[in-house]
Design brief:
The chain is an all-alpha fold. It has helices spanning 6-19, 42-47, 53-75, 78-106, 115-141.
Length: 142
């Protein structure tokens, strides 16, 4: 059984979710109105992530950059903290640019925004901090 295309499914899902709102069960249901039902399928669990995944990505990135600023300011000072944050942001920006290039420019290698990509991008922030932190600390000592 083939899975439906994510973009068309997300569009249908968000349209459907916009029309219906969760209803609380009442003791006295109205006789003239039909109860609302929400259809469920196995793919819903996987496609529901596409409705909010970009917000999760940017929330994680901003929290990580804020934590880097605070931690590096305590360890090394504001100047080194800003240099490290700039380098880490540029690592993230480059990876997002590569995703865009693979999708738009090359076209044959689609990279979808999903949970795996978000985890990889947030992990790249961690690796960027690891390397840029050591370079910044050595720069500060010299």
């Amino acid at each position: 059984m083939d899975a439906p295309e994510p973009q068309s499914y997300i569009r249908k899902l968000t349209n459907y979710m916009g029309i219906t709102e969760p209803q609380m069960l009442k003791a006295q249901p109205k006789e003239d109105s039909a109860p609302t039902a929400f259809s469920y399928s196995l793919y819903y669990v996987y496609y529901d992530q596409y409705t909010y995944i970009r917000g999760v990505l940017f929330q994680n990135i901003f929290v990580a950059i804020g934590a880097i600023i605070i931690a590096m300011q305590v360890l090394a000072g504001l100047r080194i903290a800003m240099i490290v944050v700039l380098c880490v942001f540029l690592v993230f920006f480059e990876l997002m640019g590569m995703c865009w290039m693979m999708n738009v420019v090359m076209g044959g290698y689609p990279i979808e925004m999903n949970a795996v990509l978000v985890v990889n991008l947030v992990t790249s922030i961690g690796f960027g901090v690891e390397f840029c932190n050591h370079i910044g600390m050595n720069f500060m000592r010299q």
